[in-house]
Design a protein that fits this description.
The complex is a heterodimer of chains A (356) and B (382).
Chain A: H1 13-30, H2 35-44, H3 57-72, H4 80-96, E1 105-108, H5 109-124, H6 128-139, E2 143-146, H7 175-179, H8 182-202, H9 217-236, H10 242-251, H11 257-268, H12 270-274, H13 280-283, H14 288-297, H15 309-316, H16 321-328, H17 333-337, H18 341-355
Parallel strand pairs in A: 1-2
Chain B: H1 2-10, E1 17-19, E2 23-24, E3 27-28, H2 29-39, H3 42-45, H4 52-63, H5 67-76, H6 103-117, H7 124-136, E4 153-160, E5 174-180, H8 185-191, H9 216-219, E6 223-227, E7 230-233, H10 245-253, E8 260-263, E9 273-274, E10 279-284, E11 288-299, E12 313-317, E13 335-338, E14 348-350, H11 352-359, E15 371-374
Classes of the chains: A mainly alpha (356), B alpha+beta (382).
InterPro entries (chain A): SNAPC1 (IPR019188)
Protein name (chain A): Small nuclear RNA activating complex, polypeptide 1b
Biased composition (Basic residues) (chain A): 301-311
């Protein structure tokens, strides 16, 4: 609503985002969900000062902006730990804002169920400080119960911004692992066996329809999910520690079906199937060394922006000596008319053409 | 999985994005309200603060926490743990602290330095914005009856000025009104101030005193809102016409989806089916068309203005430059004249006082030959 003349709708957005993300990034590195840890980082980075210097009605607008931003860290698909960080951030910002009466945290109806689920997860995992802070916010009546997280005024964007969420905070997709877990594979292979038996008992051994069944369906399915999991881990962690895991998994491609299923259960996605959502952030990363390098390296891998057209042209066509000078100097109005003869003729021809 | 999928499709009153960050799918505002209320406890939207002790006790009971742990929890989560300065010194929150490390502060410092380097020190609009905010936040009514009921919805509505003038320069002039769910659209209509309602048509050089009696608002009372396929017509007065009929019939003859009609005065916001963030239409004076965007719907909060009487509440008003009287250059023009022998230009703008002293004698007789038309500046509502 408050915009400057140049059409900036959100003057501090970029800076705010980087500040919040560096705070949450530090919080993520601690692998903790304790408020004590969070508040320590908060104090170290003097985060309360973020409100300082905003005067008069700027205060309210700024509070609005920063709370809206912090709210986005409190929602899925971010990892549980970052969401806890987001909650702490909301709480801390809400309590230390300079606007009076305080600006409220806007929570959208569609997100409320997620908030409740979050509260339950946190309570189940005995993260009392997270639950307490969420309750405290409700107790303080810090929420506006709204239709949508931001005010919408039909502002279509000219260019689509890339996703706002930074990659290292996002929870890894675990649906394939959840869907195709050990139980399902076991069930599948049982059915498979049963079907095969029945088919053979009903029909003649020479009949072809028995051969229609994929014999290796279950191992194949397992293989592809494993591949996916491996790919995910390779993507996330640049360490080569994973290789040993891969080695063992490939060695286990034996015919013994029971052993196979057991290995799936124990190894590949035991975490995904068994760990409650709230604890996954601790269990997914098994190796501490890969942990440290993984997330901390990630910001460097963030998407690069394309160089400008000018830069690309320069890079592509390497000019030498005088040419470079000529090309880099600005075009002058007077030079437009003094074309080399061939080009000039061409222009003339084209000019004449439409009049005919 | 299947169950939750089914419930979201059947339950259309939970607003979802139609286009991300642009607008939502249509939903029923009353239904939206009851969805929220069903999810919350009365304490969540009550205006009365909850007792802190009962809160602590409830929390401790619910999670089986001992008094000791509770006390520890409270101290860990207190605001003191967020303080970034020694206890005995209180920094000034109005200035950017020295040697900031946060990106935001560096940027703010840069902006403030730039602003300070320029000559303009005070901005009148900042002043107005402050004033408007002071008037609206946390107003408590004097009479108990006037208090807004708990759990009422508040809508934020932007009404845009017709785009017939001004080049587009990244500012879309509009006013922002806060409405409650129990307001009818007719009340909304009355709260919209537009200069085209105040125009006076005709030449009044002979009888300048009766000009204010001929305001368009009193002559042409028809108007309609358009929300989600329905035209809501103003039919409060006998002389009102259904001016949406033309559009509806035209649409019918051109194979457009059919539109329906309803009465503005019988429709409350609560009964509406709308998309949040989507542009709709308010049309009055025949062809003065305003875009109307509902930017927000939410439950009331104890810090809102709780005086029912103050709604519809104006929270933002775009201010436009006004045309001043060509004689005194102080007051806003009220008359413009043509064929005027006293005037320096043709046509020429006068404020009421200058107009009368220049063109009429003490007894109110017209001097000279001229045509005078009442003029309403579009900044009249500033």
């Amino acid at each position: 609503m408050i915009r400057s003349k140049r059409g900036e709708t959100d003057p501090y957005r970029k800076q705010l985002k980087s500040d919040c993300e560096s705070l949450l990034g530090r919080f993520q590195k601690t692998e903790s969900v304790r408020f004590q840890v969070f508040s320590e980082i908060w104090r170290e980075s003097n985060f309360t000062h973020i409100f300082y210097g905003a005067v008069k009605h700027e205060k309210r607008a700024f509070s609005r902006r920063v709370l809206d931003l912090a709210y986005s860290y409190f929602l899925p698909p971010l990892t549980f730990q970052i969401r806890v960080g987001g909650l702490y951030l909301l709480y801390s910002l809400y309590r230390s804002q300079t606007a009076s009466p305080p600006e409220q945290i806007r929570v959208a109806l569609k997100d409320w169920d997620e908030v409740k689920k979050f509260e339950k997860d946190a309570a189940d995992a005995q993260h009392l400080d997270a639950v307490y802070i969420l309750r405290q916010l409700r107790f303080l009546k810090a929420f506006h119960f709204t239709a949508m997280p931001t005010l919408l005024a039909y502002k279509k964007k000219r260019k689509t911004e890339k996703s706002d969420l930074s990659e290292e905070f996002v929870e890894r997709a675990s649906r394939p692992q959840e869907l195709i877990n050990g139980d399902l594979l076991e069930e599948l292979s049982n059915i498979h066996e049963l079907y095969e038996k029945m088919k053979t008992s009903v029909s003649l051994p020479s009949e072809k329809s028995v051969n229609m069944i994929h014999r290796s369906f279950v191992p194949q399915l397992r293989g592809s999910v494993l591949d996916f999991h491996k790919w995910q881990q390779n993507k996330d962690e640049t360490d080569q520690d994973e290789d040993c895991g891969e080695g063992t998994s490939s060695q286990q491609e034996c015919s013994n079906r029971a052993g196979l299923i057991a290995s799936i259960k124990s190894k590949a996605y035991g975490e995904a199937a068994e760990a409650s959502k709230s604890r996954r952030h601790r269990q997914v990363e098994v190796d501490p060394t890969s942990n440290e390098s993984g997330p901390s390296n990630a910001p460097g891998r963030s998407r690069k922006t394309k160089p400008s057209f000018k830069a690309r042209t320069k890079e592509k066509y390497l000019f030498s000596g005088d040419q470079l000078k000529a090309s880099s100097s600005t075009t002058m109005i007077s030079h437009l008319t003094s074309l080399d003869p061939v080009a000039a003729e061409k222009v003339k021809y084209f000019k004449r053409f439409p009049s005919k | 999985m299947a169950a939750s999928g089914g419930s979201t499709t059947s339950n259309t009153n939970i607003p979802e994005y139609e286009y991300s960050d642009v607008n939502t799918k249509p939903f029923h505002i009353g239904g939206f309200r009851s969805e929220w209320l069903s999810r919350l406890t009365p304490d969540d939207y009550s205006y009365q603060p909850e007792e802190e002790d009962t809160f602590d006790a409830n929390f401790a009971k619910e999670h089986g926490v001992s008094a000791e742990t509770m006390a520890e929890l409270k101290s860990v989560c207190s605001i003191d743990s967020l303080r970034c300065h020694p206890e005995d010194e209180q920094p000034d929150p109005e200035v950017v602290p020295p040697n900031p490390t946060l990106q935001t502060l560096i940027e703010r410092k840069k902006k403030q330095d730039y602003k300070a380097s320029r000559k303009i020190t005070k901005n009148r609009h900042d002043l107005y914005a402050n004033e408007l905010e002071r008037l609206t936040y946390g107003m408590k009514p004097e009479a108990v009856d006037d208090i807004l009921p708990e759990g009422e919805v508040i809508l934020t509505v932007n009404v845009y000025y017709p785009a017939s003038y001004d080049k587009f320069n990244y500012v879309r002039p509009h006013m922002t009104l806060l409405m409650t769910g129990s307001h009818s659209l007719a009340e909304f209509r009355d709260a919209i101030c537009c200069v085209s309602d105040l125009q006076v048509c005709g030449e009044f050089s002979n009888t300048p005193n009766i000009a204010p009696d001929f305001i368009s608002k009193d002559h042409y009372k028809s108007a309609f809102f358009y929300f989600e396929g329905v035209f809501y017509n103003d039919m409060r007065y006998p002389e009102c016409q259904d001016i949406s009929m033309t559009t509806i019939e035209w649409a019918k003859s051109h194979n457009f989806p059919s539109y329906s009609q309803a009465k503005m005065e019988d429709t409350r916001f609560m009964d509406l089916n709308v998309k949040v963030g989507f542009p709709y239409l308010y049309c009055h004076q025949g062809d003065c068309e305003h875009l109307v965007i509902i930017t927000d719907v939410r439950l009331t909060h104890k810090n809102d203005c709780l005086d029912k009487e103050l709604y519809p509440l104006l929270t933002h008003k775009h201010r436009v430059a006004t045309q001043k009287c060509s004689v005194c250059h102080i007051f806003i023009g009220r008359w413009f004249t043509t064929n005027d022998e006293f005037a320096p230009s043709h046509p020429c703008l006068f404020c009421d006082k200058c107009f009368r002293t220049l063109h009429y004698n003490e007894d109110g007789y017209k001097l000279g030959d001229f045509l005078a038309y009442p003029y309403v500046d579009r900044g009249a509502f500033n």
